Amino acid sequence: MPERIGLSMSAGPDAELLGVFTRVLASGQFILGAEVSAFESELAHYLDTAHAVGVSSGTDALVCALLALDIGPGDEVVTTPFTFIATTEAIARVGARPVFADIDPVTLNLEPAAVVRGPNTRAVIPVHLFGHPAELAPLELPIIEDAAQAFGARDRGRSVGTLGRLGCFSFFPTKPLGALGDGGAVVTADAALAERIRRLRQHGSAEKHRYVELGGNYRLDALQAAFLRVKLPNLAGWLAERTAVAAAYSRELAGIDELGLPVTREGTEPAWAHYVVRVRGGRRDALARHLDARGIATAVYYPRPLHLQPVFAKLGYARGDFPHAERAADEVLALPLFPGLTPEQRGRVVEAVRGFFG
């Protein structure tokens, strides 16, 4: 059997990464410090925003953003049920109540028309799912963008993450811009919010040994910041590769009645974190097994919507409440997509998919 094709791969210039490891090791500064400050400046410049604050993960970025807006017990935050649990987990961790709204059946992102504002609603967290920019303009609430999967994506020329009040990124290794461990960032144009997030990530400390509020240990490691500084200049090329692979898939898989291909909203440039198809007719799992038998990895994002997860049973939602999210959970399948995926590998994927459908 040919070599197995993985679902994703974190690209990186190895020699440079080894060099920065040595540099950080010699510095003796492993938490925050000069590497993190430099990365924050470079990140803000790349995104064309005023402030970027490095934190320990994408999840903690969401927590810090919510805390910075004073969202907590008694408050409600609207979000999508079709995403990774971190989005809703962050809302619950600050003591607020997650309120779900259904997704657009075409883009799979939060449907603005489904968002209902109640008396306790304080914010909305749209997710730029799979790297595709969500529609934000109709949302009449403070927006915290969950851009964990969408670093480098753009909407009408503006960087995703800079469109709302606060933007949250993840640098998990498989993301479009991935570290060699965990990491995240919050970006904003608001200087006061940025300063508060810097305080929150450091146990609520305004200066050494002086604590003005309860925060947490949400600091970014210097080593991960240094790795990300090496990777950031390469991102444009990697995004171009992702886009080219996605375009080739869409061209070569067109015309299969049972296969729904991803749709790019007009005026947007996705980061293509994942290439996710929809398999109709209840055949998604059979296709996944077919590809696995041929050495091709796939993944299901996400097999159970958040409103049906046991941990959120107390919210009172039931099957049927969000039919578009539930249907997507039954149909979606991610195919291999990463910088460095060769035409030959892509051809194997396309041939195997087409072979399944006959």
**How many strands, which pairing sense, and closed or not: the largest β-sheet?**
4 strands, mixed
Helix share of residues? 25-40%
Q: Could you say which overall geometry the principal axes of the C-alpha atoms support?
A: globular
Give the percentage of residues in beta strands. Answer: 5-15%
- Total number of helical segments? 10
Strand runs, count: 15
Give the neighbour order of strands across the main sheet: 1-9-8-5
Taking the alpha carbons of the first and last residues, their distance comes to 21 Å
- Extract low-pLDDT stretches: none
Structural class: alpha+beta
Specify Rg, calculated over alpha carbons. 20 Å
Mean pLDDT across the residues is: 95
Q: SSE order, as H and E?
A: HHEHEHEEEEEEEHEEHHEEEHHEH
What labels would you give this structure?
15 strands, 34% helix, 358 residues
Give an overview in words.
The chain has 358 residues and is α+β, with helices and mostly antiparallel strands. The protein contains ten helices and 15 strands. It has a four-stranded mixed β-sheet. A three-stranded parallel β-sheet has the order 3-2-4, with helices on one face. A three-stranded antiparallel β-sheet has the order 7-6-13, with no helix packed on it. A hairpin with a 2-residue loop joins strand 10 (205-207) and strand 11 (210-211). The longest helix is centred in the last third of the chain and has 18 residues, at 235-252. The two termini are 21 Å apart.
